[in-house]
Design a protein that fits this description.
Structural class of chain A: alpha/beta
Radius of gyration of chain A: 22 Å
Family (chains A, B): Belongs to the zinc-containing alcohol dehydrogenase family. Quinone oxidoreductase subfamily.
Order of helices and strands of chain A: EEHEEEHEEHHEHEHEHHEHEEHEHHEHE
CATH class of the largest domain in chain A: Alpha Beta
Largest sheet of chain A: 6 strands, mixed
Organism (chains A, B): Sporidiobolus salmonicolor
Number of helices of chain A: 13
Strand order of the largest sheet of chain A: 7-6-5-1-16-15
Pfam family, one (chains A, B): ADH_zinc_N
Catalytic activity (chains A, B): a 2,3-saturated acyl-[ACP] + NADP(+) = a (2E)-enoyl-[ACP] + NADPH + H(+)
Distance between the termini of chain A: 17 Å
Largest interface: A-B, 31 and 31 residues
Oligomer: homodimer
Helix content of chain A: 25-40%
InterPro entries (chains A, B): ADH-like_C, ER, GroES-like_sf, Mito_Enoyl-ACP_Reductase, NAD(P)-bd_dom_sf
């Protein structure tokens, strides 16, 4: 049986005592919703007997193409279980066989895409790496997204035989403070790739610039600084990249005005890779960039990649876990929210957290931890070993 | 020496008696401009002794990245010669040598990019193909643009070993009535690829639909029909393509609202190829298409392609000339405007033609023909043998 802890930013995920087997009579708890809507209101706690595993993605806002599956086998009312990223420690097994050949008691497993956990969706992380729960719970989605975007569009990965020698390579990204953005900065640094990082202005901007610089960012600019024409930032960036450097990759999770400006800075044949649309508007790009500068705009979604690269995932995750263990890839700042007490208590706590997230007051990635009902109370458990 | 005839739509091109050699004392005439500006006003006739050849692209509106070279060796005033597409018949040679090995008297040559014609920029079209001047003069840019866009992004060319078998392939395009669009329809037809064609509404829309259908278009829709939601055109198009068909390529020379709708119709991994921006606005595309549907937006410009594929051009041009000779690729409707008489007469005629083009009243591609001063008058020469 697995004890679980879950990572998410806007997309909550939770379910306790998930099994690396197929059936059981153990009671599980999960964060669920029975209708789409305001995340501060629709999330609630749910108890159920663990049923047979079923595949299905569990996402609350209904904007993702893979809608959470509505389950009617978990109780009197149909529910959808939240969750697409988490970590659990193996405590035992419901069934012997395949599972025990790979996982050992004490190992951790990280996953994406399945809250009811078929064994094949688990990525085992050997206990010998000594990763914390916080490190493991934030590993499944964002770092691999960064890793793939730095590998698959322009050959920047040092293991890629097509990586250019001689010309220092650069990347520009918006949303550089996101969990993906921070992973981009650190992986690029490790690979000898320069980064130009754009972030929102904020009262604590200098501290943020210092934080990203400490992670390995070469340059950090606010969107205002980047878009201010009196700064002549374009020639400044060209100077940073230099004649013996090359800027061919832009990573976009926002899609505002700055995105077209990032695309304009790319050399001929550059790639603009979109992995998010926080600005919630269409991406507006001048046709001349496509025609005359051979721009390619494309996108990345880890779920698509995983579906088409079943064998490449585990080695990549081990490479990333190795970077983490070596202190070269730090997890984003996290806050553990312990779910405990009555279903009403849990519901209230979920609502409070979602409100803080919506108002942008969390500032950290929130990890949900289901308190085992036999465990000591949550107040004692918010340390890094949660 | 070559006798010349020139094709253009908005971009005039002209210069008579171009040489397949390097220097001479023959007097040439050309359409030139000495300042950028309103094309109905700035174009004029110019006489000069043919100088040494110089490379340079000659484009009037100054919107292309390759600006026309200003020449100060052609007379007292600096001028820029117009022209990037045309045809000429070989009548003789100024210099013997390389040229005569490939070209024979009576052959035609078609070209792009150079008004002062270095031999290497000529694509020889053997006299044995019996192409008319109208066919040859319109061959250098638009049909190869169509050919490459159907070959290089999704493997639709029957000679491509990666072309899928079993699934009928489809293409959707806007501006389908353009010279490129008409070539797309006909080449796709020849290759067994279905086409869905979008055009502007107009009083003669039924005649246009019939004309494009006669060329091989499977479906022709106006933008209004395409964007009218009450038509539920999306499910209709899905039905046309069918479960055993695939729509992975969209060709865009407009960039209006219809472009995002074309992109939405593409299957997962589809390609949106932009080769023009007639709407003169940014291309607006939903980020979700890039992230979840693996859309790739890119562009095509023949000049870029030619620069990077020096050996593949002539075989492609011969394949296209073969399609024309077989009656499978018809040139767009053309109108020959004969330039003759005094420089003022020529200037007036150029101004009239540009006005008609600007007002959209030409309806046809305009070919400029410089009347040799010893030839019979233009009135007798507007037949297809011009």
């Amino acid at each position: 049986m697995l004890r679980s802890s879950f990572a998410s930013k806007r997309l909550f995920t939770s379910s306790s005592r998930l099994l690396a087997g197929t059936t059981s009579s153990i009671e599980a708890r999960a964060v669920v919703f029975t209708e789409h809507g305001d995340p501060t209101k629709v999330l609630k706690a749910h108890r159920y007997k663990l049923p047979k595993l079923a595949k299905g993605e569990n996402v609350i806002q209904g904007v993702y193409p893979s809608k959470p599956k509505v389950r009617d086998d978990l109780g009197p009312e149909p529910v959808s279980i939240m969750g697409n990223e988490g970590v659990a420690t193996v405590e035992g097994f419901v069934e012997d066989g395949e599972v025990e050949k790979t996982l050992k008691v004490g190992d951790k497993g990280t996953w994406a895409s399945h809250a009811n956990l078929p064994f094949t969706s688990l990525i085992p992380l050997p206990a010998s790496l000594h990763l914390t729960h916080r490190q493991s719970a934030t590993l499944a989605i964002n770092p691999p997204t960064a890793y793939r975007m730095l590998s698959d569009f322009v050959p920047l990965n040092p293991e890629d035989p097509n990586r250019k020698k001689g010309k220092k390579q650069w990347v520009i990204q918006n949303g550089a403070n996101s969990a993906v953005g921070q992973a981009v900065i650190q992986i690029a640094k490790e690979w000898g790739v320069g980064t130009i990082n754009l972030v929102r202005d904020r009262p604590s901007i200098e501290a943020l610039k210092e934080q990203l610089t400490a992670l390995g960012a070469d340059r950090v600019l606010t969107y205002d600084e980047f878009l201010d024409r009196s700064n002549d930032i374009r020639s400044q960036i060209k100077q940073w990249v230099g004649k013996d450097g090359e800027l061919l990759l832009a990573l976009n999770c926002v899609g505002g005005k700055e995105t077209a400006e990032m695309a304009k800075l790319l050399g001929v044949g550059g790639k603009l890779v979109t992995y998010g649309g926080m600005a919630k508007t269409a991406l507006a790009l001048p046709p001349s960039l496509f025609i005359f500068k051979k721009l390619t705009a494309t996108g990345f979604w880890l779920t698509n990649w995983v579906a088409t690269h079943p064998r490449e995932r585990t080695p990549m995750m081990h490479a990333l876990a190795g970077l983490i263990a070596d202190g070269k890839l730090k997890e984003p700042e996290t806050e553990v929210v312990v779910l405990e007490g009555s279903d009403d208590d849990v519901r209230q706590r979920l609502s409070d957290v979602m409100k803080r997230l919506e108002e942008g007051r969390a500032g950290k990635k929130v990890l949900l931890h289901w308190q085992e009902e036999s465990e000591p109370s949550g107040a004692d458990r918010q340390a890094d070993d949660v």
